Amino acid sequence: MSDRIRPDSVRDAFHALWYDSQCWKETAWFGVPIQKNPFDLLQYQEVIAEQRPEFVIECGALHGGATLYFAHLLDLVGRGRVISIDVRDGWHEAVRRHPRVERLVGDSTSAEVLEIVDRLVPSSSRAFVLLDSDHTEAHVLRELRAYQRFVQVGDYLVVEDTNINGHPVLGDFGPGPYEAVDAFLRETADFVVDDGRERKLHFTFAPHGWLRRVARTPASRPVADLAARSRSMADEIERLNAEIRRLHEAMQAMQSTRGWRALEWIRRLRAAIGGLGGRGGG
Ligand SMILES: C[S@@+](CC[C@H](N)C(=O)[O-])C[C@H]1O[C@@H](n2cnc3c(N)ncnc32)[C@H](O)[C@@H]1O
To answer: Ligand 1, closest atom to CA 133?
Structure first.
């Protein structure tokens, strides 16, 4: 290594240049905008080729450039599906048409979305998970807690844009993905940061964000499944209660109408006449 070049300063300059130039906004994969660092794309390709996951789960799709990138890689290895999640339905037509792509619209941490992902991904299947949606610490931490269950021992969960909030760019962003990773690693020993994946001169936009599962606490998936199920049952109970309240209000409204009162009056009259007839016949 030359004495004149300090690797850290080159790395920081690269991050700063990439962000300042905004060229990540002008990059496309087969015509679909993709907001990825090319060094990370190369790294992702290595993971797909090595691990041949059955599922790639991507939280935060935007137009789906990365979704299409992964779908094309899975075409090459000949198996797998991409589950692409976003709050907005902004997927490019080419992504919608790709047979390996499953699109889910909604908050990545909502009970509805997680229930569908739970249904799509059998508990023993191998998945590669990427978090690239809302970059606030609270949201990323919720995603980490929820999506870790889809990752098997040896597999990866990548938290993207850990470089923001001063690591080394966008120093005033506030606590974000990097801080969420730290909080998550304080909660579990099942994951470690795999620095080996940052070896390409640290030009990754997921520094400290390449998490690899090294153990699975036995109850983590069943407990997570149970939590998802109880959340969806609570939602169902709430929905039924709302329906009962609505029916009750409709019933009360109906009982206060003139027509209803007239029917009531006829019913009582009939009962009285019937009573008279009964006495007469006896
Ligand atoms: C940085 S962009 C994703 C870029 C994309 N992965 C790519 O490489 O081209 C972030 C996306 O996350 C989505 N998003 C924001 N909050 C979200 C949430 N709570 N759940 C799911 N998606 C969310 C946004 O709508 C936006 O499309």
So the answer is: 12
**In this predicted model, which residue has the larger pLDDT, 95 or 20?**
95
One domain for residues 92 and 180: yes
* Count of structural domains, the chain: 2
Residue 269 sits in which domain range? 229-281
Kindly list the protein residues whose Cβ atom lies closer than 6 A to any atom of ligand 1. Answer: 34-36, 59-62, 65-66, 85-88, 107-108, 132-134, 139
Same domain, 80 and 100: yes
Residue nearest atom 20 in ligand 1 by C-alpha distance? 107
State the pTM of this model: 0.79
Query: Whose C-alpha lies nearest to ligand 1, atom 18?
Result: 107
- Closest to 98 in 3D by CA, of 133, 64, 122: 64
Q: How far apart are CA 57 and CA 36, in angstroms?
A: 16
User: Are residues 142 and 40 both part of a single domain?
Assistant: yes
67 plus 152 within the same structural domain = yes
Q: Per DSSP, what are the bridge partners of residue 84?
A: 58, 103
CA atoms within 13 A on the CB side of 213: 21
DSSP symbol at 26:
G
* Distance between start and end Cα atoms, the chain: 116
Cα–ligand 1 centroid distance for 133 (angstroms): 4
**pLDDT tens, 199-238?**
666 688 999 999 999 999 875 555 555 665 666 677 677 7
- Do 208 and 242 belong together in one domain? no
Determine, yes or no, domain membership for 72. yes
Instruction: Report the helix count and the strand count for the chain, using DSSP H and E.
Output: 9, 9
Each residue of 129-146: pLDDT tens digit? 999 999 999 999 999 999
Domain assignment present for residue 222? The answer is no
Question: Is residue 49 domain-shared with residue 159, that is, in the same domain?
Answer: yes
**Ligand 1: nearest atom to the Cα of 34:** 9
pLDDT of residue 278: 55
